[in-house]
Amino acid sequence: MVTVIINCYNGEEYLQEALDSLHNQTYQDFDVVFWDNCSTDQSVAIAEQYDGNIKTYHGTEFVGLGSARNLAIQKADGDLIAFLDCDDQWERDKLEKQVRIFKENPDIDLVTTNFSIMNMESGVTKLNDWHGVSGVGGLHELIAAGSISTSACMVRKAVLQKLSFVFDTQLKYTMDFELYSRIATEKNTYFINESLVTYRIHQSMTTKKLQNVMKEEYDVLLNSIYSVHPIFAEKYPDDIRQLEFTRDFLQAKFLLSNNKKETRELLKPYFPNHRAMLLFFLALLPGKSGNRLFEFLKSKRV
């Protein structure tokens, strides 16, 4: 059985669509842990409209998303754990395809799918680019894919129970990827390169408000990789450089709006190579243009 974890804080705007996509699944052997994080809107009332397999829990105080997810996982009865953020949607056969992979591959611990990105401001929906990653892989492929949506992930509960902690409650931006980087080894992760999730980008989402913590959190992510996978950096140095590139680009963009001198100091060590020079000038471009060029260069391992 699958337990679907839904953590919610004032998610009424999109929650109905998320729950509809869940209840329309072709695979129906699941239950739902709905963890309400002290919402003040109609989120709980919307969730309680659904009878049957939704178990609603009410936090006694507001906590961070990592803490809320950890609390919800403790209530899970299923052998497999899936996550659905209350502003995302699933395709009808999402659970069916992931469960099939687990049944056919007992050595697989984590199954994730590709996803589409819906920009609520522009009204444009586009397929996320996984750069050709597909099938069985591990941490190397996880980094190569570039973007992972937690709403697209399913993991064996037994694997989570073996970890000293699940979601790092000190992290906000890299929290999801840090967890999956600890789970993924060489060949225990399966990538379904098909969009089975729609991931919304909107002004109220948490990740749009976290630019000031990105550098510190990427440092935590890198240290976690060094600790859990001690030979990974030696075997895949380009993967480490890609994460460092992402970290410094995001930090440069944040600093640029506040302190151009500090931006130059941050990027000065990179100047001896062309990749660093591109990074510097990339940080000077306006938002959308810079982001597009950044994604292109990252895909080319510049």
Describe, in plain words, how this protein is organized in 3D.
This protein is of the alpha/beta class and 302 residues long. The chain folds into two domains: 2-204, Alpha-Beta Complex (Spore Coat Polysaccharide Biosynthesis Protein SpsA, Chain A), CATH 3.90.550; 212-299, no CATH class. It is built from 13 helices and ten strands. The chain has helices spanning 12-23, 43-47, 65-73, 94-104, 139-145, 157-162, 175-183, 214-228, 232-235, 237-256, 260-267, 274-284, 287-299, and strands at residues 2-8, 30-36, 54-58, 80-83, 89-90, 110-119, 125-127, 135-137, 153-156, 189-201. Strands 1, 2, 3, 4, 5, 6, 7, 8, 9 and 10 form a ten-stranded mixed beta sheet that branches. Helix 8 runs antiparallel to helix 10 (237-256) and helix 10 runs antiparallel to helix 11 (260-267). It starts with a strand and ends with a helix.
**Main beta sheet strand tally, sense and closure:** 10 strands, mixed
Query: What is the CATH architecture descriptor of the largest domain?
Result: Alpha-Beta Complex
CATH topology of the largest domain: Spore Coat Polysaccharide Biosynthesis Protein SpsA, Chain A
Count of all domains: 2
Q: Which overall shape is indicated by the principal axes computed on the Cα atoms?
A: globular
- How far apart are the termini? 43 Å
Helix percent reads 40-55%
Low-confidence stretches: none
The quaternary organization reads as single chain
How many extended strands? 10
